[in-house]
Amino acid sequence: MQRLIVSIVAVICLVGLFGCEQPVDTPEGQDRVVELTYSIFFPSTHIQCQMAEQWAQEVRRRSDDTIQITIYPAGTLSSADACYSGVVDGISDIGMSCFAYTRGRFPLMEGVDLPLGYPTGLAATRVATAIANEFEPAELQDVKLLYIHAHGPGILASKRPVQSLEDIRGMNVRATGLSAKIVEHLNAIPLAMSQGETYEALQRGVVEATFCPVETLDGWKQGEVINSITDTSVIGYTTAMFVVMNKNSWARLSDNQQRIIEEVSAEWVDKHGRAWDEADEKGYAFINELNRDIYTLSPEEQQRWKDAVQPILEEYVTNTANRGLPGQAFLDRLLELIEEHHTPEP
């Protein structure tokens, strides 16, 4: 009897031992389910957050539900300025925010936001993604870069007409970050404030103008408190926004799952860019409904504005060179890519 009990115990132990070595959750040849978190600074109502949600849904569909992504909009998982570091540190698996929110952290990529004359959001988005993939900046090597998108050219919306440098001289202009430098080089006075504060500031005359993508005039209804816009796209700046993934989270994926994310991300570059342009079209439609004046700078005046902001480009080249970075080559390539995108699509 005692020998029988010992034999039974031995069998149970062997079954338990070998049973633990068998995969119990994933059939052979099938990708295991991976759950990922995605931190986005845009609110859920913003078209760019909605584009990210569609991206996540498409990734899930193509992966047969093995990649499940939960989106945390409006900075609820990590604030806009901490989003990138949050991805690096694993607070979120994926993150979307602006390079400009952590000035100095991305010295080479800051070149994308310069006043280079972007014609559209689609062009800015394609150029930003292409230049990052081409140069592979060291500042982005602590994450897996999925893609970049960027808004259409910043224009000047004002309470009184601006058709020359003389017209803007001394004007109080709402501007932050890089656009504040642009305002200074145009001999105007930059005043920093959030988009939420700008409507009242324009209404009360605290500022007389604002630099912004035209979609802002509809999205924030600022078109109601300005009288004209000036097409300053000849020095059109953009704001580049990264979509990046934690390296350890990326390594958890199978080769097939990684391929799916890369393929969907490549497709979503144009989807984001076109969404920015559609938003700009709505902005122009809103301006036209309000019968606001739209001014175009003469060719001579366009050159004057380009000359005025040239020192900003030179400063970028100097600063990057001092850090041993190829700022001049980066800037030259940016200008080449932008010029290629000035030709309208067929």
Q: What can you see in these coordinates?
A:
47% of the residues lie in helices and 16% in strands. It has helices spanning 2-20, 47-62, 83-88, 121-135, 165-168, 178-185, 195-204, 215-219, 247-251, 255-289, 299-322, 327-340, and strands at 34-40, 67-72, 94-98, 144-150, 154-158, 172-174, 189-191, 209-213, 228-231, 240-245, 293-296. Strand 1 (34-40), helix 2 and strand 2 form a beta-alpha-beta unit. 40% of the residues are buried. Residues 1-25 have low confidence and may be disordered.
Query: Which descriptor suits the 3D outline?
Result: globular
* Secondary-structure element pattern, one letter each: HEHEHEHEEHEHEHEHEEHHEHH
Distance between the termini: 88 Å
Helical run tally: 12
Q: Could you name the ranges where pLDDT drops below 50 across 5 or more consecutive residues?
A: 1-25
- Strand percentage, roughly? 15-25%
Radius of gyration: 25 Å
Average pLDDT reading: 91
Overall SS class:
alpha/beta
Multimeric state of these chains? Answer: single chain
Strand order of the largest sheet: 7-6-8-5-9-11
Beta strand count: 11
Report on the biggest sheet: 6 strands, mixed
Q: What percentage of residues falls in helices of 4 or more residues?
A: 40-55%
